[in-house]
Design brief:
By secondary structure, the chain is mostly helical. The chain contains ten helices and seven strands. The strands form three sheets. It has a three-stranded mixed beta sheet with strand order 1-4-5. It is found in: Nucleus. Required for pre-mRNA splicing.
């Protein structure tokens, strides 16, 4: 498979899925030792082992050196696993970096409605992730912060995200259910108790 998208892969947002990663980063990924040694001959099942071994998330660092996380994102874009497989990655609660990888893939490839429906439940996951910044330093980022960046941001991990339709528009036109946060639910319960 080398550096090509699998045969029969569908275009994502009108382009080859790998082109969602900028050319400079993509070429740097292809040149990394991690890509050549650990991403060779991966499939939808064996990529789980690599994702579980991740120690941090991030895009690039130290003069655009790609992280292992970015290498696996590109590999997922090459493999284009079936939707059910990606959803299983998200359900694997014990592996937070696999979950973060799947969330990033969902945001890159799913349409707006499915992205909101799939990612919003992850806003209730408060586990800590290590994030490697562009300067090479590490910081702590919680899963809900990461997912919020995916849903609200334009650029995450040095990747320009495809545009999402605004949530309010999807609620009005596509029938997306309004989101109620945990705080909103707790306040509704408290108001119900006070009314008694």
């Amino acid at each position: 498979m080398a550096n090509t998208t699998r045969a029969g892969a569908l275009s994502v947002h009108g382009t080859n899925p790998q082109y969602l990663v900028p050319t400079v980063i993509r070429k740097r990924v292809y040149d990394t030792l991690y890509w050549k040694e650990h991403c060779f001959a991966l499939n939808s099942a064996t990529i789980i082992d690599r994702a579980v071994e991740l120690k941090y998330i991030g895009g690039t660092y130290a003069n655009t050196r790609p992280t292992e996380f970015m290498c696996l994102v590109l590999k997922l874009l090459q493999l284009q696993p079936e939707r059910e497989i990606v959803l299983e990655y998200l359900r694997a609660e014990e592996f937070k970096y696999l979950r973060a990888l799947a969330a990033f893939y969902v945001r890159l490839t799913f349409d707006s409605l499915n992205a909101y429906e799939t990612l919003e439940p992850l806003l209730d996951d408060y586990r800590k992730l290590r994030f490697r910044g562009m300067d090479g330093s590490y910081s702590i980022l919680t899963m809900d912060e990461f997912v919020d960046q995916l849903l609200a941001g334009e650029m995450v991990c040095e990747i320009q995200l495809p545009r999402l339709t605004q949530r309010k528009v999807l609620e009005d036109t596509e029938g997306l259910a309004p989101r109620r946060s945990k705080l909103g639910k707790a306040m509704a319960v408290m108001e119900g108790l006070e009314g008694r």
